[in-house]
Amino acid sequence: MTGFQVRRSTREPLNALSVSLAQEFSDHVPAGTVIRSVAQAREALLAVGVRAGLVVAVESMTRARLQALAATSGSASSAADHEQLSTRCQQSPSAASEGDTRDEPCAQHSARRTPRPTLRRAHDVRTRR
């Protein structure tokens, strides 16, 4: 088997892995982050000499990284909170002024959104000369 055939035989499963992980984590992290995570895991494993079982190792490494990112972003719970708060604000926008401390005004709950974490690549960071 030539080097080209080896790369092609691993590229197709890695592409399928990227697609399935992007769909699985679509509510938590951007698709670009998933793709970069898969590429970085592949590069790291190839650098240490992993050849057999590369796709399985990349999947477990990427899944762990994405789960950590999803946990730190808290986007699943914050998305549910946001939907619940926006529904409450639409039903009764003055609930907070009536003494209901559980509800937040629309301006506050829309500002509560946390930015999605992204993985930074080495060339994204500019160095001083």
Automatic annotation (TrEMBL):
<protein>
    <submittedName>
        <fullName>Uncharacterized protein</fullName>
    </submittedName>
</protein>
<feature type="compositionally biased region" description="Polar residues">
    <location>
        <begin position="86"/>
        <end position="95"/>
    </location>
</feature>
<feature type="compositionally biased region" description="Low complexity">
    <location>
        <begin position="69"/>
        <end position="79"/>
    </location>
</feature>
<feature type="compositionally biased region" description="Basic residues">
    <location>
        <begin position="110"/>
        <end position="120"/>
    </location>
</feature>
<feature type="region of interest" description="Disordered">
    <location>
        <begin position="69"/>
        <end position="129"/>
    </location>
</feature>
